[in-house]
Write a structure and sequence with these properties.
The protein is an alpha+beta fold. The chain has one domain. The longest helix has about 40 residues. It is rod-shaped.
Length: about 100
């Protein structure tokens, strides 16, 4: 089982392509060889793969952008809810409010 090792012959850009990625990983010198487990943000398929961190950057950037958009949407929704309640507050504080509530 060598699914976690790089392909033979792939040069490591960190060494100026003087060594192979496999050589760097096997000798425990590569800090960029990482496993990613999760969902591909483009296709939705599950990922469980080892690769160079530099190779993962485009995929992780897409995922990060999607999370930022979702966070922005949640903040906007929360803001709208707060503003809606703030608009109702003066009406509840008016002297006629108890009469309106009691009928």
């Amino acid at each position: 089982m060598t699914d976690f090792l790089p392909e033979d012959g792939v040069g490591c850009h960190e060494t100026g392509f003087t060594k192979t990625c496999r050589e760097c990983v096997v000798t425990h010198r590569c800090r960029k060889w990482r496993q990613i487990i999760g969902t591909n943000p483009n296709t939705g398929e599950m990922i469980n793969k080892w690769d160079c961190a530099d190779s993962w950057m485009p995929l992780l950037t897409i995922e990060n952008s999607q999370m930022q958009r979702q966070t922005g949407a949640a903040v906007e929704s929360f803001r709208n809810e707060v503003m809606g309640r703030a608009a109702e507050a003066p009406q509840l504080a008016s002297p006629e409010a108890p009469k309106q509530l009691n009928g």
